[in-house]
Amino acid sequence: MTNKQELKDRLIQEVQNNEDELIELCSQLIKIPSENPPGDSTEITTFIDQYLKNVGAETSWYESTDKMYNLVSTIGEDKGGKHLIYCGHSDVVPTGDHSKWDFSPTSGEIEDGWLLGRGASDMKAGLGGIIYTFGLLKKLNIDLPGKLSLAVVPDEETGGEFGVPWLLENEIIDGDGCLIPEPSSRYNPTIGQKGSYWFKLKVYGEPGHGSLSPLAGNNAITNMIDAINEIRKLWNLHIEVPDEVKPLIEKSKRYMREVEKDREPFQRVLDHVTVNIGKIQGGTKSNIIPESCEIEVDCRLPFGITQDDVTAFLHEKLDALEIDYEISRFGFRSNANYTSADDPVCKSIVDNITHVAEHEAYGVMQWASSDARHFRNHNIPVLQYGPAYLPSIHGYNEKVKVEDIVRCCKVYIAAVVDYLYEK
């Protein structure tokens, strides 16, 4: 019988003793461009594949669409034990205007205790952590009483379908629990997330000479203004949060008050539908009455309202305006979802954050969306925990503290022991 605590302490010390190797791996990942779009993951997948082969792991490539590669590797044996998945995405958002960066977006350098570059926080440091954890367990030949799978996916940042959902729908990966090293705070993994409802609305009018407006034609832009005013009323809906998730909502509000204190004014996003009119386009010239106008809208849905509820609301309000319109969906689509804090995969991470960091830890809600929703749709409990400097995510000068990378990796490797050795 393996003494779990002794094994955990040994593995944590191995991470500590070899932290330079961990940080070098994360640095190398940042130095490889993997922006999505365009979404070509060839170079970074090749690098990770070689790293895993160097420690003796077998790998499988799956090309879900042109130049988007999923990489899967598994260690351990099927001895009737559990199967844990560690899953991370290799793609990053575009770097934007390089003149606004203080360093190269593909720097990968260490400066004053910070690892620099696009993906440092979202999520190449976290990805490096789970790859290193997987490789170290393989290299040390740890006899696991179950299986650990590593899945590296290429298509998360656009909400695409060629990463996690593709692997799950094609039954390439399956398991009893999953960790995604998405950026989080130091002591608060995300165990739930709001739903997503992205849509395009196109309103049609009738063109005419601008000098006759508003008596002539039918102005699509002014009709769109009326439509936008109705869409924004989603925020004002009173939503009954189900009793089962109220404790999670309250803990998350506490987190916004006490941890990310700059988020305190935004606590209401946890139980309201947020509405962002993100893009608008319409008309031809100032002297032509516009015959069409289109907007793109990002709504995030709390517990207590579904995508179908939002669709019904939109049609009711827009039909009442008696305008000619079309709605089409795109991007992220999901209802609010969560994993119980009492699930073994959540407990294994949260308990080991407390153990490694010697600090209270608890799970919270995420007000955005991620690949976690796909695992939950396939009845696989999942949570997210990764190193991050949250203000830098998706912005210029992205970075992450080296100490956070090391701490998270210690949690990852200790959690494998707790999860797989727990009957």
TrEMBL record:
Signal peptide: none annotated. The keyword Flavoprotein does not apply. Its EC number is 3.5.1.18. Gene3D superfamilies: 3.30.70.360, Zn peptidases (3.40.630.10). Keywords: Cobalt, Coiled coil, Hydrolase, Metal-binding, Zinc. Pathway: Amino-acid biosynthesis; L-lysine biosynthesis via DAP pathway; LL-2,6-diaminopimelate from (S)-tetrahydrodipicolinate (succinylase route): step 3/3. Its cofactor is Zn(2+); Co(2+). The keyword DNA-binding does not apply. It is an enzyme of class 3 (hydrolase). InterPro entries: ArgE/DapE, ArgE/DapE_CS, Bact_exopeptidase_dim_dom, Peptidase_M20, Peptidase_M20_dimer, Peptidase_M20A. This is Probable succinyl-diaminopimelate desuccinylase.
